[in-house]
Write the structure tokens for this entry.
Amino acid sequence: MAGDLRKVSDDIKFVEEFELDKSEELNGLILNELYLPKELLLEILSNLRAQDVMKCSLVCKTWFNLTRSTALWKSIYFKQEQRKKVPNLPWYVFYCHLSSDYFRNVIKNGNGELLFKHWEILRNQGDQFGVEKVPTGSDPLPADIPEFHGQTSCFVTSYEYCIKYQKFDVSSKPLLSYIIQKYRPILYASEWYTGRFDCSCIYELSLACLPPCEKSDPKKLLKHKRYQKSVSGTAGLDHTHWEKKELFYETYPDDLATIAFIHQGKDQQFWKGRYGSKMAGGVLKFVFESIQPSPDDLSTEEL
């Protein structure tokens, strides 16, 4: 079960709305001796970034209450995401989505443009991992794929297994943890891979979802089959175009603490050098569209 939302402190204080006495009813609604209706203020606030809206909550009690309005955050979501239908969710779920990468992509340096920054190497055999500024012996990265962010580089493996991972610490993000426990959104991972025209290869993408007691030892990640899900493929020779592998994870520990995005590969002909699988454009995120309102969510009108 999710904990008490009022105890969550993740960039923002979750407290109940302030009660205003009669002397405070117009507080924050008179600007330069002009009265601004709450409806007009909500419309103005709906054009701001999520982070700026929360800064406005510091102005006064009235503005604080307005920034906790579900109608406001549904309007912001509608304008920024251009969705025809807005889900019936509490304001803090929209805030989490709009102010973070949790529902977009938390993988950093997915193409190796920063070499191996943000990655931890578990196994580096053969001639080890490498980064190619432009893929060698295969098709170039497609230019129209958003996950590549305009980059042309990729990771490449060798004649023995090369394995590395990137870890996302859920336990250090209280608001996200609360939303995960309450709504159980689908966890999604994907990556693009290919091989060389002259050498066949193996590629594998895995996702390990670990509870607190299992998160501290990265060397055991590959052994946690009960927490792990993977997809694999072969490439090379007649398969040098880039292909996308995807994982959808609907069951993970109730007390999810850490997610490890793991990829590995090697060539199948034991050639010296880096003739193994290539990978780029990794994505790890929670699927916002999979969140369904819970029975205790307050009823709000659709936009």
